[in-house]
Design goal:
single chain, 2 domains, 126 residues, mainly alpha, two-stranded antiparallel ribbon
């Protein structure tokens, strides 16, 4: 952190880094940071499940599936949409575009069911 903290506009900013010796170092122009008793760290991780395992105190009862992973509110809707697309796959979903008060989809389903039967099943039914 040789070149940080030399900005007159950010003189109250506290810069932190984890050095190769795995210690957390602080640097600031304001000497009040020396009176800190606690530090809270947040981060973005490439593998959230591995980070959750590191945060688990009791490794025997630590289940990643039961962990909660916070997500920004703006990302919830696209996440749900992507999950639904992944679960539905490439399924065929016909649409009833005629507004004629008939259940045309049921007729289409029956037509597909009748015409996709195996030849053996057609012989048995006929």
């Amino acid at each position: 952190m040789r070149y940080v903290g030399n900005n007159k506009f950010l003189k109250n900013m506290i810069y932190t880094s984890i050095a190769p010796d795995q210690y957390l170092y602080f640097k600031s122009q304001n000497t009040e940071f020396l009176n800190l008793e606690k530090a809270k760290m947040t981060g973005i991780f490439q593998d959230a499940s591995e980070a959750a395992l590191l945060a688990c105190e009791n490794t025997e009862n630590c289940d990643v599936i039961d962990s909660s992973f916070p997500l920004e509110e703006a990302l919830i809707s696209p996440l749900i949409e992507l999950v639904v697309k992944e679960l539905l796959g490439a399924s065929y979903r016909p649409e009833d575009s005629n507004n004629n008060s008939n259940d045309d989809l049921a007729n289409l389903v029956n037509f597909i069911r009748r015409n996709t039967k195996s030849s053996l099943q057609k012989q048995i039914e006929d």
